Amino acid sequence: MEKNFKSGFVTLIGRPNVGKSTLMNCLIGQKIAITSKKPQTTRNRIQTVYTEPGIGQIVFVDTPGIHKAKNKLGEFMVNAAEQTLHDVDAILWLVEPTTFIGAGERHILEKLKKVQTPVILVINKTDTIKKEEILPCIAAYQKEYDFAEVIPLSARRGERTEELIGLIFKYLPYGPMFYDEDTVTDQPERQIVAELIREKSLHALEEEIPHGIAVTIERMKERKKGGIVDIEATIICERDSHKGIIIGKGGAMLKKIGTNARFEIEKMLERKVNLKLWVKVKKDWRDSDFLIKNFGYREEE
User: 128: pLDDT confidence band, cut at 50, 70 and 90?
Assistant: First the structure.
């Protein structure tokens, strides 16, 4: 093992919808974390891996957004995010490019004041403001906390993201590789497939339903001949009325979700996919410990 190889764990935190998953996908160079304009898109801790041969390896832990919990699923998500702050070598805190520091940001600041981990402030979405508006944003945040580094960037455009990688390596210890060079995530394929179906559902449906959906993969098998992957999945929702909306008139909505999801899954698996979707109702599953665990949201052992 090379003596000057660095490796460590870095978490991305920030209020829902500041662009954490977009940044993660941009740094890794492919889609791992699902993105959507709706809050609570990321539910589990997702580990993705960035390796620069001869230099080092960064294991990114993308957490659910830190927010005030409203139900058991919410509590699970917030605990997962907050626990991570103590377990990593550096924290990336993503914020919007504004001088106004709202209640959500202040809630995160309180959490950060309790940890010893170096914090890199990432002011994302710089493509949405004028250049001269960036310095006042930096100043507003620096008044509140002593950051190890501050970097404005645009994850959507991939601007200054390489510079960010360099800053992260500064704070990582020397050490061995945790994963093979070609590993990009620790997520099992089935879980990524479930997440892609959930993402396409989030994109297609009305505001209210998406939080109340989970996706389970019933079957995923490659055919011996022809290399087609057969996938059967169920979208779980909380109410009968939601089921009707997800299926849509004459099955149109479910078909749309299926078509969009299949396109993404084929890209990821690099194989043809035959996708079948069903919809089931499990009332108030987000408040049931058993169902939350059953749908794959488990506390870290």
Answer: very high
Considering only the C-alpha atoms of the chain, give the largest distance between any 2 of them, rounded to a whole number of Å: 63
228-241 pLDDT tens trace: 889 999 998 888 88
Section 24-43 average pLDDT: 56
> Following CA atoms 94, 77, 180, 269 in sequence, which dihedral angle do they give, to the nearest 10 degrees?
-100
Task: Check pLDDT > 90 for residue 286.
Answer: no
Query: Where are the extended beta strands (E) located within 3-131?
Result: 6-13, 46-52, 56-62, 90-95, 119-123
Tens-digit pLDDT profile for residues 57-97: 898 876 655 666 667 767 776 676 677 788 889 999 999 99
Nearest-angstrom CA–CA distance, 201 and 221: 23
Q: Is the dihedral of CA 156, 162, 167, 168 positive or negative?
A: positive
Phi then psi for 152, rounded to 5 degrees? -85, 140
Apex 230 CA angle, 224 and 231, nearest 5: 150
Here the tokens at position 113 are 């004041």
Tokens of 163: 């510079």
The neighbour count for residue 207, using CB atoms within 10 Å, is 7
User: Hey, what are 222's tokens?
Assistant: 């490659």
Q: What whole-number distance in Å separates Cα of residue 81 and Cα of residue 239?
A: 28
Cα(281)–Cα(31) distance, integer angstroms: 29
CA–CA gap between residue 247 and residue 128 (Å, rounded): 36
